């Protein structure tokens, strides 16, 4: 049994309370490898932004859960080395699907876990969430739950159709499950293809797809029911066109990839939404940078020569999100 506090990590309780009061959102960035983690920590240290490091089930399979946890422990020390005096870093399980998995993460030093029972019937979702909350809270580990279904593909999480969260259920769900934060469905979606072309309109000037707007009316209803309660948005990458263009002009093929426009996320960050999950955008930044080097320098075979520029590009992306979209810069000195 390892407690997160001994690793220098923090849970989400104080982070979220401050974010709700301050009208900004905490970035939740997924990591799967060293370069991604370095880029996240560098960007957060330079901007003094609290951060949630997310480990998904896909990341656990790819990189090994043990290694990822030690990397997060190392990240706290790395942040201090970069001159960040009081790093606020949370290590979070993304889309935990069983009690056993959540328990093993709590026991292993995670400071926050998500139990995603959103595909279960309502009462079963409550029961499972409650079980995880009762265990996690003994160790001061915070728990994110999900109500409503997001469309899209994220690692092992696949759903064909989305179902908006029903505002009339949130008080009952939050009260009975005891969760610390709630992921809701208001039109965000996992992956780099968040919307089918037929769900979008086309900009007549550029020919690019324009996605449907998020359901801010549903968000407002939820905020009215649960004033000040931390709300989470999954699937909130913007799929920057510049990266898609670089990928497509350097041998890639991502036709009609489309994300959530940043101005909508900016608006959400000012509301009770206090955690915004961004994964696909850093995958795109990484891939664009790697493709560019490999096409421009076909003789290159040192991974540091293409993973290095990819890391630099991710630092730029993360800093942009922190400063221009979430407003979390300067919130963790
Ligand atoms: Zn998600």
Helix/strand/pairing category: alpha/beta
The ligands bound in this entry are: zinc ion
What order do the strands of the largest sheet run in, or round the barrel if closed? 1-2-3-4-5-8-12-13
The share of residues in helices is 40-55%
Number of strands: 13
Order of helices and strands: HEHEHHEHEHEEEHEEEEHEHHEHH
Radius of gyration: 19 Å
Number of helices: 12
Q: End-to-end distance, in Å?
A: 30 Å
Q: In CATH, what is the homologous superfamily?
A: Aldolase class I
Which runs of at least 5 residues are low in confidence (pLDDT < 50)? none
CATH topology: TIM Barrel
Note the topology.
Layout (H helix, E strand, L loop, with lengths): L12 H10 L3 E5 L3 H14 L3 E5 L1 H7 L1 H17 L7 E8 L2 H9 L4 E4 L6 H16 L4 E6 L3 E4 L2 E3 L10 H8 L3 E4 L4 E2 L10 E2 L6 E2 L5 H10 L5 E3 L7 H9 L12 H8 L3 E6 L1 H17 L6 H24 L7
Parallel strand pairs: 1-2, 1-13, 2-3, 3-4, 4-5, 5-8, 6-9, 8-12, 12-13
Antiparallel strand pairs: 6-7, 10-11
Helix pairs in contact: 2-4, 2-12, 3-4, 5-6, 9-11, 11-12
Description:
This protein has helices at 13-22, 34-47, 57-63, 65-81, 99-107, 122-137, 170-177, 216-225, 241-249, 262-269, 280-296, 303-326, and strands at residues 26-30, 51-55, 89-96, 112-115, 142-147, 151-154, 157-159, 181-184, 189-190, 201-202, 209-210, 231-233, 273-278. The chain is α/β, with parallel strands linked by helices. An eight-stranded parallel barrel has the order 1-2-3-4-5-8-12-13, surrounded by ten helices. A hairpin with a 6-residue loop joins strand 10 (201-202) and strand 11. Helix 9 (241-249) runs parallel beside helix 11. The chain is globular. The model has no long low-confidence stretch (mean pLDDT 94). Bound molecules: zinc ion. Residues 95, 154, 190, 234-235, 277 line the site of zinc ion.
């Amino acid at each position: 049994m390892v407690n997160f506090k001994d690793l220098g990590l923090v849970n989400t309780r104080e982070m979220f309370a401050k974010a709700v009061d301050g009208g900004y959102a905490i970035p939740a960035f997924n990591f799967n490898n060293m370069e991604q983690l370095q880029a996240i920590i560098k960007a957060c240290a330079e901007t003094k932004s609290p951060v949630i490091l997310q480990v998904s089930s896909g990341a656990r399979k790819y990189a090994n859960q043990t290694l990822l946890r030690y990397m997060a422990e190392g990240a706290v020390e790395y942040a201090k080395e970069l001159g960040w005096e009081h790093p606020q870093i949370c290590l979070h399980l993304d889309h935990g699907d069983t009690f056993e998995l959540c328990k093993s993460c709590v026991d292993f030093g995670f400071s926050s876990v998500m139990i995603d029972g959103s595909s279960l019937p309502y009462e079963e979702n409550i029961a499972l969430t409650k079980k995880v909350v009762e265990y996690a809270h003994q160790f001061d580990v915070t728990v994110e739950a999900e109500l409503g279904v997001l469309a899209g593909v994220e690692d092992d999480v696949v759903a064909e159709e989305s179902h908006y969260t029903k505002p009339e259920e949130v008080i009952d769900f939050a009260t009975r499950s005891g969760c610390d934060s709630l992921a809701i469905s208001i039109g965000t979606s996992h992956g780099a293809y968040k919307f089918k072309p037929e769900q979008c309109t086309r900009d007549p000037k550029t020919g690019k797809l324009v996605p449907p707007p998020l359901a801010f009316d549903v968000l407002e209803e939820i905020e009215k029911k649960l004033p000040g309660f931390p709300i989470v948005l999954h699937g909130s990458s913007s799929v920057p066109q510049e990266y898609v263009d670089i990928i497509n002009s350097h041998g890639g093929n991502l036709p009609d990839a489309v994300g959530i426009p940043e101005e909508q996320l900016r608006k959400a960050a000012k509301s009770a939404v206090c955690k915004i999950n961004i994964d696909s955008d850093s995958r795109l930044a990484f891939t664009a940078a790697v493709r560019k080097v490999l096409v421009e320098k076909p003789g290159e075979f040192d991974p540091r020569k293409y993973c290095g520029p990819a890391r630099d590009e991710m630092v730029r992306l993360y800093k942009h999100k922190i400063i221009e979209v979430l407003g979390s810069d300067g919130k963790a000195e």
